[in-house]
Amino acid sequence: MRHIKQRKTFLRNNTAASPVIGVMLMVVVTVILAAAVSSYAGGLVGGGTKTAPSATFEVQIKKGVDIGGENISFMKIKEITGDSIDTSDLKIITSYIDDNNDFYMTEVYPNSENTNWVNGGNPSKVCVSPYWSNPAIGEFGKDEAVNFGNYVLKPGVVMIAESDEADISGHDTGLEAVISVWENVSKGDFITVTLVHTPSSKPVFESEVEVV
After folding, report:
1. From the CA atom positions of the chain, what is the Rg in Å?
2. Using one digit for the tens of pLDDT, what is the confidence trace for 20-36?
3. CA angle at residue 114 from 112 to 119, to 5 degrees?
4. pLDDT above 70: percentage of residues in the chain
5. Beta-carbon neighbour count of residue 36 at 10 Å?
6. Residues in contact with 88: Cβ distance below 8 Å, sequence separation at least 6, in sequence order
7. For 112, phi and psi rounded to 5 degrees?
8. Which pTM was predicted?
9. 202: nearest Cα among 103, 91, 87
């Protein structure tokens, strides 16, 4: 009888141990799979995410300024500090509400046929503004090196859109292509200017700028 009891006890203990071992194995396998999936997913996210550059800018928008006896309007964007940014990776958005409470927004993309009037006018403009304001490099409309999309922004670089510079189609000025329905803009109005880093789809800069 003693041997029979010992055998039954052994069988009970052995039976109880099997589920425990099975559960432990399942836990181990689950942990390994979770780690593998996490590592794979992390690799996908890391490889597909672009980091936006960091920079600060000074923006001026002036209407009807006397420069050398000429009445000129312009928008000037100057990088003050920060990373170098290829303008081929930038989109400029301008938007404002006029005195009639009508909303206008323009999206400016690199290179020719780059301007989309989201509303308030023609669907698109052919232009290369804002150009790199650097006479030593070239002249707007004549040298492609100063066209928006062909140069690199860095501290000290100024890009500008002017009312006296005709775009490459010869119909609209650079400023009219960058700011929708410019004739509706008055001194004292505020225009929101946003620079978007297109590879990351993140804004690099955004500010409300008063027209003076």
Report:
1. 31
2. 555 555 655 554 555 55
3. 145
4. 66
5. 10
6. 110, 111, 149, 150
7. -65, 160
8. 0.72
9. 91
Q: How many CB atoms lie within 10 A of CB 110?
A: 19
Peptide bond between residue 130 and the one before it cis (omega within 30 degrees of 0): yes
- Reference 92, options 189, 174, 184, 211; nearest CA is 174
β-bridge mates for residue 144, sequence order:
none
DSSP H stretches of helix in 124-207: 174-178
Reduce the DSSP state of residue 199 to 3 states and report it. coil
> Containing H/E element for 44?
helix 2-48
pLDDT tens for each residue of 73-117:
999 999 999 999 999 999 999 999 988 888 999 889 887 666 666
CA distance 64 to 129: 19
- Sign for the CA dihedral angle at 184, 185, 190, 195 comes to positive
Contact 106, 99 (CB under 8 A): no
User: Which residue ranges make up each domain of the chain?
Assistant: 1-49, 55-210
Which amino acid belongs to residue 11? L
In a 13 Å sphere around the CA of 169, the CA atoms on its Cβ side amount to 16
**Residue carrying the six token digits 């000129």:** 72
| Residue 183: φ, ψ to 5° | -65, -20
* Distance (Å) of CA 83 to CA 52, 94, 128: 10, 22, 23
